[in-house]
Structure formats: structure tokens, C-alpha cells
Specification:
By secondary structure, the protein is an alpha+beta fold. The protein has a single domain, classed as Alpha-Beta Plaits. It is built from two helices and four strands. The strands form two sheets. A two-stranded antiparallel ribbon has the order 1-4. A two-stranded antiparallel sheet has the order 2-3. Strand 2 and strand 3 form a beta hairpin. The N and C termini lie close together (about 5 Å). The model has no long low-confidence stretch (mean pLDDT about 90). One of its GO terms (molecular function) is electron transfer activity. Keywords: 3Fe-4S, Electron transport, Iron, Iron-sulfur, Metal-binding, Transport. Its cofactor is [3Fe-4S] cluster. It holds the Pfam family Fer4_15.
Length: about 60
């Protein structure tokens, strides 16, 4: 699994960090970021739920 956040789309709602805090965080400006080393989802089942929770669909989860 590969996870990415489109920074041009992210509005900083924080739903990703609230839903899957072991995979996502927020930067100093409040925008979502994938935690370093967690780009593969780190086996966290909540990573997909965080992508669904994003109000602007800035998170992509690729199964490749």
C-alpha cells in the first residue's frame, strides 16, 4: 500500500490525523502529512478510513 497527500488540495481539516494518528500528522500550518516512514500505511487499517474521511479527497491510497 502506498499513501500520499496532495498538498495542493489539502485544506487542513485534520481528519486524517484524527482518524489514523500512527500514519498521519499535521505540519506547523495545520496541513496533513504522512509521518516519515509511514508512506506504506504501516499496516494500519485506519489509513483507508482516513482517506475516506478527508473532506476534499486529498489522500490517495494505492494498493500497488
Amino acid at each position: 500500500m502506498r499513501i500520499a497527500i496532495d498538498q495542493d488540495v489539502c485544506i487542513g481539516s485534520g481528519q486524517c490525523a484524527l482518524t489514523a494518528p500512527r500514519v498521519f500528522t499535521q505540519d506547523d500550518d495545520g496541513f496533513g502529512q504522512v509521518l516519515p516512514g509511514r508512506e506504506d500505511g504501516a499496516g494500519d487499517p485506519l489509513a483507508r478510513e482516513a482517506a475516506r474521511a478527508c473532506p476534499v479527497r486529498a489522500i490517495t491510497v494505492d494498493d500497488a
